[in-house]
Amino acid sequence: MPKERTLSIIKPDGVKNKHVGNILQRFEDAGLTIAAMKKTRLSRTEAETFYAVHRERPFFASLTGFMSSGPVVVSVLEGDGAIEKNRALMGATNPADADDGTIRKDLAESLEANTVHGSDAPETAAVEIRFFFSDKELISTI
Ligand code: ATP
Ligand code: MG
Description:
The protein starts with a strand and ends in a 10-residue tail after the last helix. The chain has a 4-stranded antiparallel beta sheet with strand order 2-3-1-4, sandwiched between helices. Helix 3 (about 45-50) packs across helix 4 (about 60-65). The protein is built from 7 helices and 4 strands. The protein is of the alpha+beta class and about 140 residues long. It has helices spanning about 10-15, 20-30, 45-50, 60-65, 80-90, 105, 120-130; strands at about 5-10, 35-40, 70-80, 115-120. Helix content is about 40%, strand content about 20%.
């Protein structure tokens, strides 16, 4: 598996429900390394930019409202097959469909408030990492 980087967001429900430590432990237990991390809050405009790919979807206004409703914890995860590894830890988009033992099955509130975001491909990972972090903030091990 190639060494990769991916962007993780612990969404406002995950921070509000105090799941940050639990989720970061899952990343480390799966062999991923946290190369950068911060707690921040997205403005409505920033959330709209980040999720621009979903602009035409009926849930766009609600999603971007939710994503800007409270603080988030953003991290860059590194390791072998990091993108797929993180997506596997997250589970299906809808927590009702997620496998047992995944973050969304165990911790999510709803389809919208589904606790975590993870990049879905190397190209989107690069754009999303750049959205949140400068080179100086990224302590890379790969
Ligand atoms: P993410 O991009 O957040 O990692 P994902 O790739 O699993 O999640 P996407 O299809 O990219 O899923 O949807 C982005 C986010 O939009 C979802 O994580 C969820 O919060 C929200 N979402 C997706 N579908 C719906 C829906 N039908 N109704 C409400 N919210 C939705
Ligand atoms: Mg997505």
